[in-house]
Specification:
The complex is a heterodimer.
Chain A lengths: L3 E12 L2 E12 L3 E5 L6 H8 L7 E6 L2 E2 L2 E3 L2 E3 L2 H10 E4 L11 H11 L5 H14 L15 H13 L5 E5 L7 H16 L4 E4 L3 H7 L2 E6 L2 E6 L1 H6 L4 H11 L6
Parallel strand pairs in A: 3-10, 3-11, 8-9, 9-10
Antiparallel strand pairs in A: 1-2, 1-4, 4-5, 6-7, 11-12
Helix pairs in contact in A: 3-4, 3-5, 4-5, 5-6
Chain B lengths: L6 H5 L1 H34 L3 H16 L2 H15 L6 H27 L2 H9 L4 H31 L11 H12 L2 H33 L6
Helix pairs in contact in B: 2-3, 2-5, 2-8, 3-5, 4-5, 5-7, 6-7, 7-9, 8-9
The chains are: A alpha/beta, B mainly alpha.
Chain lengths: ~260, ~220
Amino acid sequence: MTDSVIRIENLHKSFGSLEVLGGIDLDVRAGETVTVLGSSGSGKSTLLRCINFMEMPSEGRIYLHGDLIGTDEGGSVRYSESELCRIRTRIGMVFQHFNLFPHMTVLKNVMEGQVTVLGRRAGAAEAKAREQLERVGLSDKADEYPARLSGGQKQRVAIARALAMDPDVMLFDEVTSALDPELVGEVLRTIRQLADDGMTMLVVTHELGFAYHVANRVLFISDGRILEQGEPRQILREPATRRMQEFLDGHAQFRLPF
Amino acid sequence: MVEWNFLAVLADADLLLQGLVNTLKVTFLALLFGIPLGLVLSLCRLARARFLSMPAAFIVEFFRTTPPLVQLFWFFFALPILIDVRMTPYIAAIVTFSIQSAAFFAEIFRGGIQSIDRGQWEGAQAIGMNHWQSLRRIILPQAVKRMIPAFMERSIELLKTTTLVSTVAYTDLMFQANDLAQKTFRPLEVYTVVAVMYFVVIFVFSQLSIRVEYRLARSGESTVR
């Protein structure tokens, strides 16, 4: 159990009578890139959103660097808003639809959380923001408004915005699903660079190629449970369950035959 | 054949101008108090806590659905019976129109805030912002921009409604006009001049608002995504 960044125990999430997550256990270690696969409605996005408490877990515990998030109250866990805000600064999240702030320039987008939430000085925040924009290859777009960027550029700004908070772990929620196919590559390359830099990441995606080439571990989620997990080359080639085989076949259906 | 004679009106033009100043004063103060109060009411109404949202909703709906003249009379004639205050026409006018505008502005704020994509709240939340920081830094700046046309519209409506204060003897433009019409026996000219005065003020204001809208549209960082 060395270097556990995120540990999840018995995570359940229900919306009303609908159970979306039915008991997830997961341990993500420092520097690991874990890819989460699954059909839509399988609960993979909900899993991600529970980890930074955009959705409140119905049951279960989440630990960040070994420390329980929330307060244990005789079996159930209680969360305070201020603690969750603090936790979210340490867990970066990137969304399918970017969610950039349209009334701010790219630079201000990347500075905003640093100044308003972390209380960094404007000078330090700007330096950090420029450094992160450089990292995602968008130094020249610092003064543009998000509306003037392509989808791929917007998503890279969103990544820079999350990185600028110096998070311990990054969550990616189908970040290429809203992009034109030809823009997917630039975003995936950026994420791969982060993996190479040793960032700890959980990546929900439909890009099997990315899972295959970049992930250290692949999870396959079905009906709110982890059905299979393992080393990508193993699990993507020889899935153990019929459910996952069907999922992979569905993705392969319209692949070019060479 | 009707004979127009504006001389009598022009001789007392300063009365009308004084009335116009008072009209603008009431309008301005009602906006000054009404806008912040409207923001507070809208935030209360949007709050999850029912002890905040229920009273706010009641105040907003009550002042939106009762005639402004009734409200004015209530504050001027009825309130002093309930509590020990000396109501002047001026105070009654400010109080009535501040609360009444607040009720309308509250709905404009609420519409503006609710029109902002949920993703904006999530984007703010994901970098650790609390509710208040998200609202102040991310949601309101975008919402206010969308609200400006409705704000302008409502302010013009308010300026027109303030003519009611003449009924409690506040010396606004309308009151001065009535006064002058009786004194000079020239209602035709007096009310024509007054109509033109209201027209000019409101026309200038609405042209200004069109200009502002146009500039907003052009600077147009799209608020969608």
